[in-house]
Amino acid sequence: MQRFADKVVLVTGAAAGIGKATALRIASEGGLLVCTDVQAEAVETTAKEICEAGGKAVGFVSDVSDPASVAEAMERTLAEYGQLDSLCNIAGILHFDNTLDLELEKWNRILAVNLTGTFLMCQAALPALLESGGSIVNMASTAGLAGHPWTAAYSASKGGVLAFTSTLAVEYGKRGVRANAVCPGSVKTAMHDQFKLPEGGDIELLQRIMPLDTFRGPETAAALVAFLASEDAAHINGEKVRVDGGTLA
Ligand SMILES: NC(=O)c1ccc[n+]([C@@H]2O[C@H](COP(=O)([O-])OP(=O)(O)OC[C@H]3O[C@@H](n4cnc5c(N)ncnc54)[C@H](O)[C@@H]3O)[C@@H](O)[C@H]2O)c1
Q1: Please, what sign has the CA dihedral across residues 208, 212, 218, 222?
Q2: If you average pLDDT over residues 61-85, what whole number do you get?
Q3: Tag placement on the chain: N or C end, fewer CB within 10 Å?
Q4: For ligand 1, atom 23, which residue shows the shortest CA distance?
């Protein structure tokens, strides 16, 4: 399957987890990759792995919450390939806190990366996507769909990503750019493995976000991102698709 032959795809958060799995998946289908992340060595490793497997990729540091860094990433993308066909906004951060204890600084940082970062990337990429008739895939979460304890900032940021994606879909759909959102539940990545419940946190309250059968790795979410970014999803615009093992069914 070569759904991304001659297509240029920018993936944020490509150093690890779902972002890395997405970059590898799209490259394996012929995509020309731009991999960005705040982790310099790891994002270069992602690009190197793609090149060693016979694909084409560049990997460099870009912080999605920093407008100057976002602009630079777009400039580098166009300088390298001259076009952009898909933007996959996967970068994100998570922290568990009792809402009563959540510091404003932490709230602002989570919103800055997860929501404002998604907006900044989309705004920077849209001119090129309008030229190519491209697609956007934004990473939300089941935490943006239903109550999820101790994640006030994270859940608000993902709910915001869902609303923002719907806006993009109707605002730019007629001009040929699709925008969809992916809502993972629990996917086995560093983010999932390293989470810490806050004081008094009750693991049973989190059961609703545990997959019904078994935990799966980031390639499960990456497959969905690749589908939505590709022409296979040409008639899908403004959707929110869960990949969670059936938890909220
Ligand atoms: N793992 C899950 O269970 C799960 C569930 C729902 C949603 N998600 C979402 O999926 C996305 C990927 O998560 P993951 O599980 O792969 O986590 P991860 O921690 O393995 O990967 C996240 C990546 O984003 C990068 N990043 C963080 N801040 C950044 C910034 N300012 N600019 C650029 N890159 C930045 C990190 O360096 C890291 O490489 C996130 O948006 C997350 O909210 C994950």
Answers
A1: negative
A2: 98
A3: C
A4: 13
Decide the pairing of beta strands 8-12 and 32-37.
parallel
DSSP state of 206: G
Task: Report which ligand 1 atom has the smallest distance to the Cα of 21.
Answer: 16
pLDDT computed for residue 145 by the predictor? 95
Q: How far is the CA of 234 from the centre of ligand 1 (A)?
A: 26
What is the reported pTM? 0.98
Domain-wise residue ranges, the chain: 8-242
The answer to whether residue 100 scores a pLDDT higher than 80 is: yes
Residues at CB less than 6 angstroms from ligand 1: 12-13, 15-19, 37-39, 63-65, 90-94, 113, 117, 139, 141, 184, 186-187, 189-192, 218
List active site positions: 154
CB 103 within 8 A of CB 34: no
How large a percentage of the chain has pLDDT more than 90?
88
CATH architecture classification, 8-242? 3-Layer(aba) Sandwich (3.40)
Question: Cα(92)–Cα(104) distance, rounded to whole angstroms?
Answer: 18
- For 138-174, what is each residue's pLDDT tens digit? 999 999 999 999 999 999 999 999 999 999 999 999 9
